[in-house]
Every structure is written in structure tokens, then in C-alpha cells.
């Protein structure tokens, strides 16, 4: 019967709640973008989006889920927004202006059955990733508005209390409002300068998912998968942008290894020891196809080059047979495009695989003065590995201990403790 309690385990109320959740996850970004476009207020759009979902939970168990749920939610949210603005005297002028703009604007056909909501998420991407916002605020807003994560979930991603994240999101929205940041897609002349910021936001989300900065788990699969979903969305919205294809390729080629990166108890498994049979071959093939797109038609971008490097790793039967000369050559290209100590570190490791540990350690020693690397635990891990291969065990132990001090997750620390225990038997001092 309509209204049956969800606790009966499979009644209509439970089914409707599941339908609402599915619609919310799939179409929240669409709905939010359409409302921001209409009313120019991110706070208002979020509030009436939540109210529309609440109304659906009231009406759909009785009336049934509508054939076009997205259109139902949009109509409901629009009405709630207009009601709010009418009650707010300070918003009366803004409502009048919006109505005047609507009358002057060309007629927009109603949403079709296949796509209940107009897809204006690209504008929302560029609003959330506007350069006027700090890097952390851009990432937080994108997770909140486009990935549909709640404030507590975003807080967990940043490893901060929910109250802190709520304040950060409020501050970012206020900045958008006070700086009058426009809700629009940049023109062709602006896109080259603005798109990298959007791609960096998505990549930052993925990086935290692939290699968590702290905590008990090595990976945050939920964040990595949200980043891939956002990259797929960008690919649909900007199909001719080769760097978008490059970013999606990079994420897929790295995420394809996720199941092999940890053991049965969540312990770290290094690339050398991974069971490559557990890598996702379909994801790798999709990534490789996108690499070809990203590298065709002009000079490569930074994500395309990184994706090409990832493809070489994924194509190899093992570490020893990886095409290290080509990996080094690609790092040379990447360093010319985006020079950084981290790129130099990764290139040094590739050189060590091509030419031997002595060549690699010489390059790492040249980077020892880089402030960014002194607190970067992979740098110390790389030095320790090469020193161990060269038989310089006391130095290797010191480097491993420094890496242990800096490692953020428990699986990384546990791995380093095991390596140190094996490396430092009685009689070998640091």
C-alpha cells in the first residue's frame, strides 16, 4: 500500500526513496546548474534543490515517481525560489530584473523526455573553479555542487571537521556573490587560461582518492570514482578539448590498477609486486584510446603526456620490461611543459630504471635543496630504494626513517616499518 513503512524491507516507500536518491545523484548537478543560471544565486539554488527533493519524498510515495522526474524537480524548485524571492523585500528588484530578462530572452523549448533538465553544468564547473577562489575552495565547491557530496563528506575528503568545511564553503559562495563572478562558460579566447584550473580541480580530487594524504586507508575509491565521473562529464561537455581527453585517460589508466595496489588486509603493494592480472583491462583500453585522441592534432598537454607515461606502465608485462627510455623521453617533454621538483623526481626514478641506480641517485642529490621535496615522503622513499640497490644500507635506512616520519597513511607507514626491519638487522646502525 502507498505509504508502507520502509522498515518492512522492500515496500513502496523504500522503493520511492531509492528512486529519489538515484535521481538526486544523477541529476542534482543538472538541477543546481539550471537554477543558478536562472536566479544567479548559488545559496538559493542549493536551498530550493533540497526543498524540491524533500517535496518529492512527500509526493512521490502517494502519486508515484513522475515519468520525467528531473523536470518535476526543476519546476518545483523554481516555484520555491520565486516564492522565496517574493517574500524577501530586498530581492524584489532582482526578481523583477530576472522576469524582464526572461521576457527578452529567446524562447527555450521545454526539456525533452530524454533529458529532463538543460545541461548547464559546464558553466557551474567554471564558476566553482574560478581563479578568484583559493585552490582548496575551488575543490570543495566542485565536490559539493557537481559531485553532489554533502558537507560532511567533503570535510572527510579534506580531513577537516564538518564545521570548518561548512565555513569554507560559505566563504567561497560569499566570494562568488560579492565578486560578481559570472555564471557562464568562458569564450574561446578565455578558455585556454581557464580550463587548466577546472582540470586541476578534478585531478586534485582524484589524487586524494588514489593516494590519500592521511588516514587508515591507502586509497579513497569513492573520491577517485567521483573524479572520473566528473572527468567523463567534462569530456561530454567539451568533446573537442584534447586535454580533457588526456585527463580522463590519465585517471582511467591509473585507476585501472586500484585492486592490485593493496593486499587482502589493505596493506600497500608496490608496482613491482602487483598482480597485473588484477588490473582492469577494459579501463586500460579505454584510457589508451583516449591517449591517442589527446596526442593527435597539435602539441601535447601536460595531462596527455602523463597519460602516455601511465599507458607505458600499463602495457608492460612487468617493471623490468617497461619501455624506460620512452618513459624518460616523455618526462623530458613533461618537464619542458610544466617544470617542477616532483616531475624532476619522477624523471630521476625513470632514469635510474634505464641507466642504473647511480645515475638516479645523482639526479636526486641535485634535488636535495628543493624545499618542496624535503617534506615530500616519496622523495625520501626513492632515495632509500636507490641507496639500498647500491648497497649503501646505513644511508638507505636513514632515508627510510625520514620517509616514515612523513608518510601520511597507516599502510605506507606499515610498509616502511617492514622494510626498515628487514634492512636494519642487529649490527647495522643508522
UniProtKB/TrEMBL annotation:
Stretches of the chain forming a coiled coil according to its record: none
Gene Ontology BP, a term: DNA-templated transcription initiation
Domain DUF6596 as annotated: residue spans: 194-294
Protein name (Swiss-Prot/TrEMBL): RNA polymerase sigma-70 factor, ECF subfamily
Stated family: Belongs to the sigma-70 factor family. ECF subfamily.
Domain RNA polymerase sigma factor 70 region 4 type: 128-176
Keywords: Sigma factor, Transcription, Transcription regulation
Highest taxon, organism lineage: Bacteria
Pfam families with a match to the protein in the record: DUF6596, Sigma70_r2, Sigma70_r4_2
A GO MF label: DNA binding
Organism expressing this protein natively: Micromonospora mirobrigensis
